[in-house]
Amino acid sequence: MTQKIPDLYQVKEKMYVATDCIIFGFDSGKLKLLLFKRLVEPLKGRWSLIGSFVRLDEDIDVAGKRVLKEITGLDNVFMQQLKTYGKKDRDPGYRCISVAQYALISSDEHDEDLINEKKAHWFEIKDLPGLILDHEQMVQDALEQLRNNARYKPIGFELLPEKFTLPQLQSLYEAIYQVKLDSRNFRKKVLSLNVLEKLDEKDKSASKRGAFLYKFDYNNYNKLRESGYHFVIA
Amino acid sequence: MTQKIPDLYQVKEKMYVATDCIIFGFDSGKLKLLLFKRLVEPLKGRWSLIGSFVRLDEDIDVAGKRVLKEITGLDNVFMQQLKTYGKKDRDPGYRCISVAQYALISSDEHDEDLINEKKAHWFEIKDLPGLILDHEQMVQDALEQLRNNARYKPIGFELLPEKFTLPQLQSLYEAIYQVKLDSRNFRKKVLSLNVLEKLDEKDKSASKRGAFLYKFDYNNYNKLRESGYHFVIA
DNA sequence: ACAAAAGTGTTGAAAATACACCCATGT
DNA sequence: ACATGGGTGTATTTTCAACACTTTTGT
C-alpha cells in the first residue's frame, strides 16, 4: 500500500484567536465576577466577559494579562488558563476561537475609576445577568475549576489581600463552596497544614476585638507539595 | 474624558490553529503513550505527538477525534481538552497555537496495522524519547492532569476494556501513580463505591484460577456524583 | 453593661492503613 | 504436587464531624 501523507499536514487555514477573562473577586463575604457592558456592535449593550484578540506577536497568557491590566490597572495577578472554546459556530460573525483564562483578584486592590470608565460592574456570583455567546458556559466552567482547584491548591488565597484573618479566609471558602463551615474545625484544619504565618498585627475592621492577621507561607506550601500532600480545605 | 474604545476590539489578526493529541494506553501493566515519527519536514524523523491543523469549518474537539480516528481507527474514544499552548515562538516557522487534547484508549482495541503504517510506536511512560517543540511539556501536563482526574473521576476505566478484572484495575492505578497498592484495601475501597458490576465470567488470561470480570456501572456512578461524592482511589 | 465577633477542646464515628494466609487451577 | 496469581478479615491509627462557651473591646 502506498504511504500517503495524511491530509492533516497540509490543510492550513487561519482563524481569529481571542482570549476572554473570567475575573473573580471577593468582597464583603461575597464571591463576585467582573462583567462588562459591550460598547461596540454586535451585541452592543449586552453583558459579557472582557476579552481581546490575541496579537500575532503576543503569547496567549500575556494577552490575558494585558486585558486585565487595561481593565483593573493591576499587574501580577493570578491568572490561569481555563479552557479553549472552539465550536465552529460559537461566534456568529466569523470563525473565532477563544482561550478563556480566569483571574483571581483581591478586591481591595483594583482601580475603581478604571472600572467605572469601562462600564464594568461587579456581580454577585449567585446573581449574574445573561451573557453573550458562550460566556455563561465559560463562567460555569470557571466556577467549577475554581472549586476543584481551591480544594487542593492554595489558590483561594489569591482572592485575599497579602495579610488576611482566619475569619476572612473562612468566609472566602464559604463563598466559594456556598456552605457554612464550623470555625473550630476550619481553624484546626487550616493551621495544621503549617502554611500560614501568624503576624503580630490585628485587623480591627470587622470587630472591636480584632482578629490576628496571617500571611501565606509559600515556602512551606512548596515543601508540603513535594512530599505529595494534598491540600484539602472544606 | 473621552471614552475611547479600547484598541483590543480592533486588532484582528489570524493565526494557525492546530491540535495535538496525547494518546495514553495501558498494556501489560504499563502506562503507555503513542508517538509518531514525523514524516515531513521540518523536523522530519523526530518523535512527536500526532496533530493536525483545525479546519475552518470544524469544531476543535472534532478535529481531535478526526486525528485519533485516522491514527487508531477508533471512534467514540474518551478525549479531553488539556490546555492550549500559545507562546508566540513555540513553533519556529509561523505563529501557530495548539490546543492539546488527551485520549485514553484501551490498548486491546486499536488497529495495529494502521499504527504501523503511520510509523507510530507505543512508548512506556517512563521511557519516552525526546520530542519536538513543546510536546514534552504537553505530555508532562497531560500526565499531571490524568493523575489529578483519575483520583476523582472514573476516567481510569477508559483505559481498560469494557470488561476488566480487579487485578487489572489495580495494576492500572499502580501504573498511573507509580505506587504499589495493597490488594485488600484496594478492593475494599473500589467495591465500596458500588460502581462496579460483577459479572459471572472469569478472565483466565493472567492466571490459572482466573479473576472475575467487572463492568463499570455508569448509572450508579452518576447517582454518586450527584450526591456530591468524591471518587478517590489511591 | 452589652453587643459582636474572635478564639478555643473534647468526644464519638468513620475512614484509612497495616498486615498474612488460604483458594483454585493448569501444568 | 507445586507454582501462580486471586481472593479474603481484623485490629490499630488517623482523620473528620459535631458540638457551646469564654474572651476582648468599642460603644
Secondary structure topology:
Two copies of one chain form a homodimer.
Chain A (H helix, E strand, L loop, with lengths): L13 E14 L2 E8 L9 E2 L1 E4 L6 H13 L5 E8 L10 E11 L5 H6 L2 E5 L10 H18 L10 E3 H12 L5 H10 L3 E8 L7 E6 L1 H9 L8
Parallel strand pairs in A: 1-6
Antiparallel strand pairs in A: 1-2, 1-4, 2-3, 2-7, 5-6, 8-10, 9-10
The structure holds a DNA duplex (27 and 27 nucleotides).
Quick summary of this structure?
2 copies of one chain form a homodimer. Chain A contains 6 helices and 10 strands, in the order E-E-E-E-H-E-E-H-E-H-E-H-H-E-E-H.
Question: How does this model look, in words?
Answer:
- With 234 residues, chain A is α+β, with helices and mostly antiparallel strands.
- Chain A has two domains: 14-152, Alpha-Beta Complex (Nucleoside Triphosphate Pyrophosphohydrolase); 163-226, Arc Repressor Mutant, subunit A, CATH 1.10.10.10.
- Helix content of chain A is 29%, strand content 29%.
- Chain A has six helices and ten strands.
- Chain A has helices at 60-72, 112-117, 135-152, 166-177, 183-192, 218-226, and strands at 14-27, 30-37, 47-48, 50-53, 78-85, 96-106, 120-124, 163-165, 196-203, 211-216.
- In chain A, the strands form two sheets. In chain A, strands 1, 2, 3, 4, 5, 6 and 7 form a seven-stranded mixed sheet that branches.
- Chain A is globular.
- The first copy, chain A, starts with 13 loop residues before the first strand and ends in an 8-residue tail after the last helix.
- The model of chain A is unreliable at 1-9 (pLDDT under 50).
- The A-B interface holds A 1, 3, 5-6, 8-9, 11-17, 39-40, 51-61, 66-67, 70, 81, 83-84, 86-88, 95, 97, 99, 117-118, 152 and B 1, 3, 5-6, 8-9, 11-17, 39-40, 51-61, 66-67, 70, 81, 83-84, 86-88, 95, 97, 99, 117-118, 148.
- The structure holds a DNA duplex (27 and 27 nucleotides).
